[in-house]
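Researcher: We're teaching a course module on how sequence relates to structure. For the next exercise, students receive a sequence and then see the predicted structure as tokens, so they can try to spot secondary structure elements on their own. Here is the exercise chain.
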Amino acid sequence: PSLKKTYNYDMRLMRMPVISSIREKTSITNDETLAAVIRAIDAGKTYEDLGISGVSESDYNTVFKARNIHNLGGGVSNMAVPSYASAKELALDFVRYFATDKAQEIFIEKTYGGSSGFIFDLKVKNPSLYDKVSLINRDKFDFISDKNVTVMPGTTIYPLVYKGGLGNLHAMQYDSFAHKFGTPDATTGEYVTGESLYNADIEYYTESRWKVLLSMSGY
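Model: And here is the predicted structure for the students to work with:
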């Protein structure tokens, strides 16, 4: 709630950008038409309402699917019951309770719009609570509940990641790429580029390291 006092504007959840190269999968010939299709999709128009010359239903569907992919990010709610726990069933009862609508409402209210790992249509289940959370959180719940939206899975669902530790080794270097452009690598003396960082990640996981990672992952 204090965010508005510091930043006097409403933050909204940004929809997945659709880049120009998607035109290669359609008959759309220019960015102006593509932008018009995206604006229509954002406004909730169906293909029948589109009214844009030269755009087929197949074109519309291709752009529609791309515009409705979302990577909501955020953290994860991990739960574990130790094998030596003396109240396993009680712990499992809490997990069962946490999956109920009532528990979701409590969680959302106490976290000012946070969401757990359970799908919950806040707007339908509790409209008054929906109206209380920030606009960006309303966007989040709208996206999660929209049957047309495809949410990108988090990498932590894969054993290679949560057991083996597979990850992007040069994530920080990618983030600060603008500062490293044209700078020789301290180890190799070669100039740092996006391609060199990408290849370095692949090289790291080849041969013996890859075999260790597979073993740790149970493969």
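Model: If you want an answer key for the exercise: The chain is about 50% helix and 0% strand. The mean pLDDT is 85.
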